[in-house]
Amino acid sequence: MVREIVFDEIKVGETFGPIEFLVDEETVKQYCDDHDDHNPIYLVDSPFGGPVVPPALKASLQCQHAMDTKYDLHATVPTRSEHEYLHPAKVGSRLMTSTRLTAKYIKRGLEYIVLESQTVDQNGVKIRHSLEHILLSLQRRHGEVTQGYDSVKDYLFQKGAAPKSQLITARGNLAVGREIPPLTKIAYQRALHEQTFLTDSIHDDNYARSHGYAGALVSGYTLNEYMSQMLIDFFGPNWLRGGVISQDFIDGGVQEGDKITCRARIVRMVEEGTSLRLDLDIWMEKSREVKVLVGQASGMMSA
Prior knowledge:
This protein is an alpha+beta fold and about 300 residues long.
């Protein structure tokens, strides 16, 4: 039986799932249509032998869906989303996601949990490792509480130390400080048209406005997909093996119909054999250059 999620009662270390998700051709086509992202590696063929699943497809939702089997999460708000893409999944795969409540904390009077998930395919191949920070409610309480949070890595992506001999500042048309090609979209989320949300959900227009937002929020899951499109357009299929992204959703979020632009700037370049790892600062802007997402990403470029 699904029950209300109560901060003081949930336990760090509690596990959820695994839950299974069949990623068939129809699901991938719907994703591509919804996000106007018709990359041929999803629909026709890829270097991995057949079309592959878009890496951001349900990346943020699956760990929450696993927890949904025990708790009601309809009033929650995702605030940070982190993913490490380990291996491409083929279209037609059955993906299994197992989730663990890694930490919980109160910050500025608001209650948060951290979910860590692992996704594998039907053969046990590791596809994705994720962390999600989730605000349980917009209602405030007194006090500051931390349980398990100190042991959580804030970012799956960490710069770490690299030998100076491997650090470079430029190669070809790539250089530290240079921006990669941006991606501009008109924000759209099909669920806002096809689902009825409860009156205490951030996807309900009146509720969102009552808490100072311009209107119902487009899901962080959708914003992650837009950012992922820019990064895979830049890195190519390499993003599916070793791409890492960490992003915070900030400053009023995004409402449907907003014109948003995904941007990234190279902040570090590291030679790794014949390949080149690029570390990026990433952000998403809407009108008047208001940033609604900030974070970091890292991926490999082939020689």
